[in-house]
Amino acid sequence: MIKGSLKVKNTNDKNSAGATFAVNAGNVKLRASMTEAIIVNGPSFNGLALSLEKPGSFIIDYNVPKKDIRFQFMNSIKVAEKPINLNYIHFRNDNRTILDGTIVFDSANKVSVNHVVGSGNAKLKYTYLHAGVTTFEQSYDVAKETWDFAVSRKVYGDDVVKASYQSSKKLLGLDWTRTTKQNGSFKISASFVVGEQLKTPNICAESSWDFEM
């Protein structure tokens, strides 16, 4: 059985579409994805990628246009009875390695650390889920000494409203997402730079549908 998804994105200045197809082959998945295919002035397949994935173990991605391979290995361990999720990600062409870890204290609290090897920088993020419907996130970039904040809340069952602020870019964002089993998902985003002369915000609308063949 082939499972797939189709996503269409509309922004202020361009329209694009992407698609993903996945096939189960035993305990691994074969996946082909295409993103950033511009659909206004003719097709441009800038994001074609092929993947081999074993859920919870590894992902190998091959970026066809860039001829680049990305390796990702995942593992989980327990320390003092607390689960820690670990990720090792390596990009061959850039010779760049990312280490990522998340410790889950309980169903409401978790802390994540992201580090690019050799950069001398790390990003820390704390996530708190309140009453199962409201999520607070705050992250700190050690090198830039800046904070980012986000708060999201479930409304009307299937809807999520999110507000975020990136202090390094002074970027304020607002998102509204609806996900249903029958009609896929729909998302509207708006963002603008705080402090700049008032102008039309950047607006993006995304629709996606899942299907099986």
UniProtKB/TrEMBL annotation:
Q: Which PANTHER family match?
A: OUTER ENVELOPE PORE PROTEIN 24A, CHLOROPLASTIC-RELATED (PTHR35284)
Membrane spanning residue stretches: none
Q: What is this protein called?
A: Outer envelope pore protein 24, chloroplastic
| Originating organism | Heracleum sosnowskyi
Functional note? High-conductance voltage-dependent solute channel with a slight selectivity for cations transporting triosephosphates, dicarboxylic acids, ATP, inorganic phosphate (Pi), sugars, and positively or negatively charged amino acids.
Q: Which UniProt keywords apply?
A: Chloroplast, Ion transport, Membrane, Plastid, Plastid outer membrane, Porin, Transmembrane, Transmembrane beta strand, Transport
The keyword Plastid is assigned to this record: yes
Q: How does it sit in the membrane?
A: Multi-pass membrane protein
Q: Which domain of life is it from?
A: Eukaryota
Compartments, record wording? Plastid, Chloroplast outer membrane; Plastid, Etioplast membrane
Upper classification of the organism: Eukaryota, Viridiplantae, Streptophyta, Embryophyta, Tracheophyta
Q: One of this protein's GO BP terms?
A: regulation of monoatomic ion transmembrane transport
Major place of residence: plastid
Relate the assembly described in the record: Homooligomers form large rather nonselective pores in plastidial outer membranes.
Molecular function (Gene Ontology), one example: porin activity
Which residues does UniProt assign to the signal peptide? none
Q: Cytoplasm as a keyword?
A: no
